[in-house]
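Title: [Solved] Glycoside hydrolase family 19 catalytic domain-containing protein 3D structure

Original question kept below for reference.
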Amino acid sequence: MESKWLLFSTMAIMLALGNCQEPVKPLVKIVKGKKLCDKGWECKGWSKYCCNHTISDYFQTYQFENLFAKRNTPVAHAVGFWDYHSFITAAAQYQPLGFGTTGDKLQNMKEVAAFLGHVGSKTSCGYGVATGGPLAWGLCYNKEMSPSKVYCDDYYKYTYPCTPGVSYHGRGALPIYWNYNYGETGEALKVDLLNHPEYLEDNATLAFQSAIWRWMTPVKKHQPSAHDVFVGNWKPTKNDTLAKRVPGFGTTMNVLYGDQVCGQGDSDSMNNAISHYLYYLDLMGVGREEAGPHDVLTCEQQEPFSVSPSSATSS
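Solution (posted by the thread starter after getting help):
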């Protein structure tokens, strides 16, 4: 039933996209002195963020194609899976919450570039001498190709018990690993990912949706989300300052990956994410000079927010 609903919603939004070439003018109302807007299918629900540019106003199909230019080449591993419509359809559920709509046009473009920079770096099959360069191969994968284990942690057997015969290896735009992560994400999206993790490799909209949910949601209580640290909603405490955590792209890596990437010095995985972000800023017409100084971009000297429970085996 859930998958039918998702398919119906996807088709409806794709039809709206195809029929809507001009930017949608928002409906506006004032509630308790605050301006709220509803912008139709892409930013629905009377939100202050819907009064701003929505993602399709400044990020269009040709830009998505430029960013992920090699994803459908014959040697890629998810040919025909990822597309612009799937991204926009997934993003529509989070734009009323501020995803790509929090600030002015420049800020919003930077957030989309940052999010997709993480996606590109985690799904790339590019290498140094690859055609088009190593950064042109984002969205090459939608799943881990040769998992070495099933990623079942029995510590969570009462909350997120592993389904017999099911493997919880990496899937999605920001790949999910382990039964507890599939369980938590599935609960949030109201999709049974614990019993059917393969849904993430069957439906690109759901694969993007799970990644945007992770971007918008704190990994743990009393920690910020990647969205909040990037757009400036998060205000560092004294302890954060001592830990060298500052608002910006570097701390999004700390939120998403913790000790697997951050506090490790000048690591390849950190630099790969940064390189994708800067490359996407250039391709989107923003320019890498808008990314900020080195200490904002990196997390090499940051103290991790927390230690991943499976960090020793999931890297």
